[in-house]
Amino acid sequence: MRVKIHHEGTNILIVLAAIIIAVCLPLWLWVKPLAWAIGVTVALGIFYLLVVNFFRSPRRHFAGDQQDAVVASADGKVVALEKVYEPEYLKCECIQLSVFMSIFNVHANWFPVNGEVVYATHHSGRFMAAYLPKSSTENERSTVVIRTPEGQLVLVRQIAGAIARRIVTYAEKGTDACIDDHMGFIKFGSRVDIYLPLGTETFVNIGDTVTGGISLVGRLRPDNQQSAGPEC
User: Active-site positions?
Assistant: First the structure.
């Protein structure tokens, strides 16, 4: 598993490095005692490493059987696993599986299933804490719907949090979805919801930690036609 810096963070890291240099260089040249320069440099250096850690972008490959597999879309902790009504596109009862990402998690998002993107849209909204249930429908968010090769629909929703101010979604209607590919990126704290057809077998519980693009969180039933289309 190779790790690189996500391109969403490249400009931020360059600007931040320039600011840190601009702050620290005068301290080393003109401020005495040097303890001030050392202290500030260490503190800013640690902060910079945390930002680098946030923007890391692992290249991952799901090693299991991809047939009917549902793979975690994000790194983090499972905070919801329940039957709900999805009102935006599916308009039926589904299994909602939600993963909350802290600032220490990778914030790249992966496609949870293979298939074709049939719907992709962005919604403006609030910036409540992402772990709150209302954040799924009231926060800034993007919705992506994927039709699997068997014709089932899986909805994925990227949700901004109290700190996150930008959701990036690469998925576009008509493009292919692959569980090894990035679906998008959310900057600075957030969550991802996956809506699955009723009857989907799930392998996680609330409180479990999952890894995006790696953890098998469920398996679709091949004979389940519940999510064959809107108003299912």
Answer: 190
